[in-house]
Amino acid sequence: MSNDFDVTIIGSGPGGLAALSAIREDYSINMLSDVQLNRASRHIRESNKRSKAKRICVIDPNPDWLSQWERNFEALDISFLRSPTVAHCCYFDRNALLAYAISQGREDELLESGCSDIKSLKGTILPQVGLWKLPSTKLFIDFSRDLARLLKHKYIQGKVVDIDKDDSLDSSFKITIGGNSEKVISSKSVILATGAVGRPIIPKPIKELSSTRIFQWQQLDQAISSLEQCAAKKRKVLVVGGGLTAVQTAHKVVKKSGAEVVLCSRRDLVERHFDIPVKWFDEREARFHQSQFYFEPEEERLKALKSTRGGGTVPPVYMKKTRALEIRGLITRMTGDVVSITEENDDSLMVTIKRADDSSEETIEIDVIIVACGLKPDCMAHPLVQKIQEKWPIKMTGGFPIVSDELQWTENLHVVGGLSSLSVGPDANNIMGISRAAETVANALNSKNWLRKKESNVLRNPFDVFLDETDVSSDEEE
């Protein structure tokens, strides 16, 4: 049947693409020695593609890969990724994005990140060869979509509204896709790649006030349009949040409207290249920190997630721009909490902020409030996850599911991205963490088993050459 699949990936963001690549690619050249690579390519050539390729389906409400990311980039006028060029969704080669930029003549879309100046990174090869440069958002999207086109799969635009087990189909999953015409497909395995899942964090005084002058950052263009209708000559916008999204929101408001922005955060802005410490990216240290995290109890892992990510952070390039706008009087930074809001005859909002340093209060007249406080982790905020938990309940802690070592929720139902945080680590939502999760799931689905088989000879013990037939026989007898 055309609607029967071996693997169905729910989500066409980086998590879905990384999973597709990890399953489809025969091996990663970064995982094998030159000798092993020669054995692998020879075996594939001689066996004429070991076995029948898996039938893979990808389902997402959007029409194309990374559409939601693309919309977010456009909404915030983001020109370059925060993640370096080494972070992408291609399982085969970590140099793939850099090679793509060079082959396409788009090296000018790689921005120097400043990471090569970080003392702890000196001595690694990555800064020297350009893998710490930041790709433009356009380059990253183009690369990702070209990669997806090379990996055989069926793409279905639609929203998965239910998943169930179908005993009549050899315990396959029955996946219901909603829309104008409901569709049902079956799949032996399912991978949830839903991205970050949680509930928006909204300060209580803002949440309690119903006003047409309050917006979420996703409504940024609407907020800017509403400013044009304000009677005040000098318009003022309050952006609430202390991370990169809040800073990007403030920058766009200034650029598009010329309004003065008050950027209010509960603590001082923290300047950092990435949203987690560099040690999680440094290949000399990363495996140690990953294994250390892995062997902690779940409650300790949750603490580690919070302490390592440590709230919102802002890269140096954005901090530099923020300081420049402060000097020009276009951005004012305040550290504290919004404690009360009143609406003045539908003309403006009177917002009282309690400062963090001395607990003094200041009331400011504001035309528009934009909230960019991030998400509180809560996987049950996702309707599909709710249904999965009802059918196959597992333990939760801190809003995250406690999945198996193979990132399995229930048999043959796997997760990547934010849902895998308690197993993968603080970088589970980052592209490099997503790629590790995708590899774990691909291995669980036996996509790389052929590498270990005797006939492929790829992962043969290099010391086997020192054994004689007697040693082998005695081992087998035992």
UniProtKB/TrEMBL annotation:
SUPFAM superfamilies: FAD/NAD(P)-binding domain
Record-linked InterPro entries: FAD/NAD-bd_sf, FAD/NAD-binding_dom
Domain of life, source organism: Eukaryota
Gene3D superfamilies assigned to the protein according to its UniProt record, in alphabetical order: FAD/NAD(P)-binding domain
Residue ranges constituting the FAD/NAD(P)-binding domain according to the UniProt record: 157-275
One GO molecular-function entry: oxidoreductase activity
Family matches, as PANTHER family: L-ORNITHINE N(5)-MONOOXYGENASE, PTHR38663
UniProt-recorded name of the protein: FAD/NAD(P)-binding domain-containing protein
Species the sequence originates in: Chaetoceros tenuissimus
